[in-house]
Design brief:
alpha+beta
């Protein structure tokens, strides 16, 4: 799968879930959702795309060690125009 197609699938997944009742979205949940749709990808590929979206200011992202959740990327804010 091309990087652009994977990026779009991840954005689509974010937009389907956001906003969440908890106020955050786990990168792991995005990974699992796409895997359940038979998208071939790695957890590292998801985190790489999410890091790129954060670097461009499209999402607010932190990397967390777990603390009751799977370790990895946690999205706390999504720019409104990302899902237009």
């Amino acid at each position: 799968m091309s990087e652009d197609l994977l990026r779009q699938k991840i954005i689509d997944s974010i937009c389907q879930e956001w906003p969440t009742p908890d106020g955050y979205l786990l990168g792991f949940d995005i990974y699992e959702r796409l895997r359940s749709q038979s998208v071939e990808l790695t957890h590292d590929a998801v985190e790489s795309v999410l890091s790129g979206l954060a670097a461009s200011g499209r999402i607010t992202l932190t990397m967390e060690a777990g603390e009751g959740r799977p370790p990895g990327a946690v999205i706390y804010e999504v720019e409104a125009d990302l899902c237009e």
